[in-house]
Amino acid sequence: MTILPVRLLGAVTLGGALGSLARFGLSVLFPHPPGGFAVSTMLVNVTGCLLIGVLYTATDHPLWRAFLGVGVLGGYTTYSTAVLDALQAGQTGHALPALAYTFGTLVACLLAVVAGMRLFTRSGER
């Protein structure tokens, strides 16, 4: 078993706290009723995926990737909340919107990662 350096653990911990606080703040700003469209959850997941695409192409430095990728963006994005939001929508009789939300989130997040990678690559070439 490999023991991680304290700096990496600290970076992930601090980043995770910051990312989680940002996500919580957006959920307070954009609340939704159970079964309603979860704007804040989709917003954090799509923007987080865009930023992880940028980060992936911007640096391979282990400390930055640990802090920003695993920490900040890992704490910021939330697949489990997206699944819970879809489940609650389905349980309240909104099965079709729940499926659309689930697939829409996956597609939007995938496209956001690709866009982030391409945007950074293009801006770095100029």
UniProtKB/TrEMBL annotation:
Membrane-spanning parts: 35-56, 63-79, 99-120
Binding site for Na(+): 74, 77
Known regulation of activity: Na(+) is not transported, but it plays an essential structural role and its presence is essential for fluoride channel function.
GO molecular function: fluoride channel activity; metal ion binding
Cellular localization per UniProt: Cell membrane
Catalyzed chemical reaction(s): fluoride(in) = fluoride(out)
Superkingdom of the organism of origin: Bacteria
Chief site of localization: membrane
Xref: PANTHER family: FLUORIDE EXPORT PROTEIN 1-RELATED
Role: Fluoride-specific ion channel. Important for reducing fluoride concentration in the cell, thus reducing its toxicity.
Protein name: Fluoride-specific ion channel FluC
